[in-house]
Amino acid sequence: MFETITKIFTLKDLRKRILYTISLLLIFRILAHIPLPNVDLDRLKQFFASNQLFGLLDLFSGGTLSNFSIVLMGVGPYITSSIVMQLLTMVVPSLEALSKEGEWGRQRINYYTRLLTVPLGFIEGYGMLQLLQKSSKLQIISNMNSWEIFVFLVTVVAGTVLLMWLGELISENGIGNGISLLISLGIISGFPNQISNTWTLITGGQIIDWTKMAGFGLFLLIAGAAIALIVFINEAQRNIPIAYARRIRGSQTFGGVESHLPMRVNMAGVIPIIFALSFMVFPGVLASMFKLAKSVWLSNAASYVERLFQKGTFYGIFYFVLVVLFTYFYTYVIFHPKEVAENLQKQGAFIPGIRPGVQTANYLNYVSNRILIAGAIFLGLIAILPFIAQSITKINTLVLGGTGLLIVVSVVLETYRQIQSQIIMRTYDEY
Question: Cα separation of 86 and 268, whole Å?
């Protein structure tokens, strides 16, 4: 570790890349603390503290929501646009053909993703504005006229586009994936405030509450175990042996090499959790809209749905089930055993003991279903980890966001690998 840090400061080019990345991340954190007008920040923070779903959204955005800053939406619209384009690439033949055009095709899809971010930013910004106005009895946001709403939407969309640009600058000229680093920094930025609030809760009137202290210690143990589990599952993969057919041309022999096909336990990443989190917003939005309906049965149904989603047990179970279902759905979208089997057959490769073609596709489908069970349950538990931790430790000032931990750990591992590869590339004579 110390040798790596020393080489980082020794290699001029790598040092410049890291300092460049840190500078852009600092700009992001400054933007996150520039608030928009027409909002009561104290009431807004009180609302986010009392609402579990919005608290998770605020944690995921890095506090930009509770600060009501000019980068209110963060990179959320860009993430949504990326997911939509990825799904469209699977079902639209022209986009699928474009994705197979190499670097040029990838750049065109990225261009379409950026364009789609703008309308999605307007939609999500307006939805968030309506959500905050109708989902709370507190007078958080003052009434806006049409012009003020338009200026608000243009500002938050411009903030999203600016963050998208900063992320791409980091990816091109800095170190690591820029968008992932922005999200991770936003998540990490909430930790100091949580720790400060927890210490205030423990000490109280300058007398240490040992019950709370024990809960804090238990929280640290759960957090450590969660990080270890995330690293283990994130790196876990099933290696399927692959052999290449041996070919003889004259006196020379080609092929006959043995390799393996890696299948990750968590192929879907954090996308199913993002899907589920987005889906969980809609029942509350619809309930707040129909609660004031003139129809009695519709108003009662909306009130019942709103009360139902405020119950922690129901919310946690429903959230867990959604994450598991979306994990299966998204994995089936991105992993195609038939295509993998065809590519192996074209390359003259086969799985020992399995006939090429249909039997190989069936075997890959069987293996993916087996390991997908562990991956789906893992993501489900990670998603509801904040509710589990709070119910065990009885401390509400700390939020152990499993999704946040999963993102941060994945980004840290990926960034560390990139730094190592940069060091090896510049000091290859030593290896």
Answer: 12
Quote the DSSP letter at residue 138. S
Strand-pair partners of 249:
252
CATH of 1-189, one of 1.10.3370.10, 1.10.540.10, 3.40.50.300, 2.40.128.120: 1.10.3370.10
For the entire predicted model, the pTM comes to 0.74
- Delimit the domains of the chain by residue range: 1-189
Q: What is the pLDDT of residues 95-108, one digit of tens each?
A: 888 877 877 888 88
Report the half-sphere exposure of 112 (CA within 13 A, side-chain side). Answer: 16
Q: Is 370 exposed, middle or buried (0-12, 13-18, 19+ CB in 10 A)?
A: exposed
Residues near 393 by Cβ (< 8 Å), separated by ≥ 6?
215, 216, 218, 219, 222
Distances (CA, A) of 263 to 18, 371, 417: 32, 9, 20
Are the C-beta atoms of residues 222 and 95 closer than 8 Å to each other? Answer: no
Structure confidence by residue, pLDDT tens digits, 215-252: 777 877 887 888 888 888 888 888 888 887 665 555 55
Per DSSP, the three-state class of 35 is: strand
